């Protein structure tokens, strides 16, 4: 039953000063991530209105003046007067902390971790905010701004610039919120259009039928300014999108849906002919990259249902052991969406669902719905294909285990050849140690001579290592370059990967700043992504940045890492300087390599993170997989031919963020 708004329901806790004093407490960080958090907060409110069934369109606009606006075509934010406070609902929502039906736990069911802190937090961290409510055929508006408060001797924000005012009558309905983030709070107040578009697309997939129109008014080319995301198939469409460029086992997407108590689960599954498992789970629209109780419940029921089925059709006989979960998930692409009341997010990046009651709920939903699906006559063909694939996976897994055992034994016996390649560090503390994976023997030689051997180890790579995307684990393991790398790291691989054995807390990829170097980097990142994901998520993988230019004048030397730095340095140097462009690491002597690229005091490193695992997975497949067409499309769409390395895995895939180190 629909509840009607009653301004009295809003709980009022405290004022906005607290937010400006400790913004981190409310939005986590004042970095670019925190800035975007403001936008997601408002977008969440708009999407809530849509999930409640009152809106079917959300428009998000990034304006040229740096502000952002969000519109939903729902009921409009309430404008009536709060019975005890004597101010309007709009004012309560946007100026009082923790105000909003969400926190009384009645109007809104499902909200997320850092999300749901409330629109007032956005107001508190903005130079100005304008709220328009189109409700009951009336247009109401209220404006807020930051002001200097002489009594407090500081700037406060969210100050009403007048009462909630009726602008006139209207035929429109909905809510429009526009705000300008405060540049004295945020390190960088520019919204990242690509990042915003990506998340909006994800939200459109997760909210079936919702139309999201994104406009970036800062984009020059009118053809690229606006994007519409609208998926009638919801997560079924999402799975197909994620499998772009992969060969699917069958066109069928398995769709399961159900509810137990207050937990709702929706699942879409499609198999590819590949070997990797791609699982994307969400709780209340928030990605849970670290898994949790919902994933555990899903996996348990999924494995059981398919083992039962395998016995039923005779693919497993009485004496056979059950197949493992991994066997059934080989080649699986799955989107698991769960809606949970009061979710508890845990783990390093708050990406794991902790609620224990969710596991049995999801397990029961999947058990029931999957049994039903497997019973359906028209699904027998696909189901049989899946079982056949899993049986084969189990056989290959057994073979790989043997290869791995042999490789382990071989490595122990043949420690000498690896030692010959790897120049180990003398220090034995993994937290201080660094491993440089260096492209080419000659650069490897310079690095070995230039390094600080107390904590830096060098592993030169000969030629290009094999592309792990196209290979099965046993093939990866038979490749000498990868074997050396695995042995050097000490972590094991895939299922037997463990961070506890890691001998180097910084693993630094050092390759040339050209196409070949970018390719080698991409191959190594793909390998880590597929077989040692934790190495990336735990923040151990870095990309070393050799300089592109050397500027010399007399005895003074500058190194430039990009064209912008170069022009700054040549300006500084004035007339009569010598310019050298480095084409590869091999052109630097050991001293130069140390000074520019390896010395912790001077070098520039980029830390690799997986910001968006779903997108990363899709792009690894497109860029490294075996279908040419999606790769060509992607590259022609995204390549920037002014950049040397347009083959590089683009930043939105495996995100390299500049390390503070420099
Ligand atoms: C553009 C971004 N959209 C919003 O921020 C937004 C909030 C909002 C809303 C309601 C409707 N549309 C909205 N858009 C609403 C209306 C009613 C009851 N609950 C919610 C109603 O008319 O009965 N609200 C968000 C918070 C609240 N309303 C409140 F409950 F706190 F007031």
Describe this structure in words.
This protein is of the alpha+beta class and 662 residues long. Strands 1, 2, 3, 4, 5, 6, 7, 8 and 9 form a nine-stranded mixed sheet that branches. It has a six-stranded mixed sheet with strand order 18-17-19-20-24-25, with helices on both faces. The chain has a five-stranded mixed sheet with strand order 10-11-14-12-13, with helices on both faces. It binds ligand 0R9. Ligand 0R9 binds next to helix 3, strand 2, helix 4 and strand 7.
Main pleated-sheet profile: 9 strands, mixed
How much of the polypeptide forms β-strand, as a percent range? 15-25%
Bound ions, cofactors and other small molecules, one mention each:
ligand 0R9
Radius of gyration: 28 Å
Termini distance?
58 Å
**Helical residues, percent:** 25-40%
Helix/sheet category? alpha+beta
Number of strands: 25
Discrete helix count = 23
The dominant shape is globular
Set down the secondary structure blueprint.
Elements: H1 17-21, H2 23-27, H3 32-51, E1 57-62, E2 68-72, H4 89-95, H5 101-104, H6 119-124, E3 126-135, E4 138-149, E5 154-160, E6 165-169, E7 174-181, H7 193-206, E8 211-216, H8 222-225, E9 226-230, H9 235-242, E10 254-260, E11 263-271, E12 278-283, E13 286-287, H10 293-312, H11 325-329, E14 332-339, E15 345-346, E16 352-353, H12 358-375, H13 380-413, H14 415-421, E17 434-439, H15 441-450, E18 456-461, H16 473-477, H17 480-489, E19 506-510, H18 515-531, H19 533-537, E20 541-544, E21 549-553, E22 556-560, H20 563-573, E23 578-581, H21 590-598, E24 605-609, H22 613-624, H23 628-638, E25 655-658
Parallel strand pairs: 1-8, 12-14, 17-18, 17-19, 19-20
Antiparallel strand pairs: 1-2, 2-7, 3-4, 3-7, 4-5, 4-6, 8-9, 10-11, 11-14, 12-13, 15-16, 20-24, 21-22, 21-23, 24-25
Helix pairs in contact: 10-12, 15-21
The site of ligand 0R9 has 23 residues, from helix 3, strand 2, helix 4 and strand 7.
